[in-house]
Structures are given as C-alpha cells and as structure tokens.
Amino acid sequence: MLVGMSRAIILAVVIVVVLTVYATVDCAMTDGRRAKVLQKPAWLVVILLLPVVGPLLWIFIGKMSRKQFEAPAAPMPDEDPAYLEQLRADREHDARIRALEEEMRKLDEEIEQARQETMRNHPSNHTGANPVIEADDADDDDGDADERNGADRDDDARSS
C-alpha cells in the first residue's frame, strides 16, 4: 500500500509541475492585452505561488479566448465606402488640377504671343529713319570719333 501511495504522490507532483510549467510558459507567451482580471506579471506570481490553484485560475479565467481577443476583420479597402469615396474625391481633384494646368499653359502661351507681338511692333525696333553720313565723316570708322570731332569744333567755336 505504501508503494501505491508513493506512486500516487509522485504522479500528483509530476502533474502539478507540468501544469505549473505549462501555465507559466502560456502566460509568458500570451499577449498582455489578452490577460483578464490581473496584468501578466501578477498572473505569473499567482501561478508560481499557488501551485495547483494558480495555474488552474490562469487557464480558466486568466486570459481571453482568441475569438474574444481578435477584433472582427476590417472590410477590404475596395469594399469600404469611405475608402471608395476618398478615391473618387482624389480622382476628381486630380482631374481639376490637370484642367487648371492646361488652362494655365494656354494663358502662358497667349501672354507669350502678346509679348512677342508687342516686341515686333515696338517703335524702337523700326524707326523708319535712314542714317545720314556726312562727307567729311565718311573716312572715320569709329562713331566715337564723330562725337569727339563735333565736340572739338564746338570748343573751337567758343574759344574764338
């Protein structure tokens, strides 16, 4: 009888150790957001200090099931009305930007054409006057010499 009793005690100790190790590893590996009632570190202390009760409490009330924890799947983007509305608004915005860019390009072309026309018709581009060359200045190649000669003549006329 003593042999049978010792086997039962050894079996009970092995079961308690296995249960405690399982609960400790499970608690350590479980996402902290799944822990109910207590936080994970507190659950680890309970599991280790209460040999049979601690692991059983963790297994049955310590954590949420996966179904409770996992949020319902979000709808796919192509099924989400807000996403589809945002796509439509983005397409409209892009089309409006393209139209404005085209309008600006046309206005720039009109402005450039008007500027070129103004430059062609500007009075400084065609005076209509023919240059007059005096006979005694025909030998001078330098236009500055003409001005100096005229200035020298004026100085001569004033000194006399």
Structure description:
This protein is an all-alpha fold and 160 residues long. Among the domains are: 59 residues; 45 residues. 69% of the residues lie in helices and 0% in strands.
Number of helices: 6
Mean pLDDT: 79
- What order do the helices and strands follow? HHHHHH
Taking all Cα atoms into account, the compactness measure Rg is 50 Å
Structural class: mainly alpha
Strand segment tally: 0
Helical coverage, percent range = 55-70%
pLDDT < 50 stretches: none
Taken as a percent bin, the fraction of beta residues is: under 5%
What is the overall silhouette? rod-shaped
Q: Kindly report how far apart the N and C termini lie.
A: 159 Å
The largest sheet is: none
Tell me the layout of helices and strands:
Elements: H1 2-29, H2 40-49, H3 53-62, H4 66-69, H5 81-121, H6 143-159
Name some characteristics of this structure.
160 residues; mainly alpha; 69% helix; 0% strand; rod-shaped
Compact summary:
The chain is mainly α.
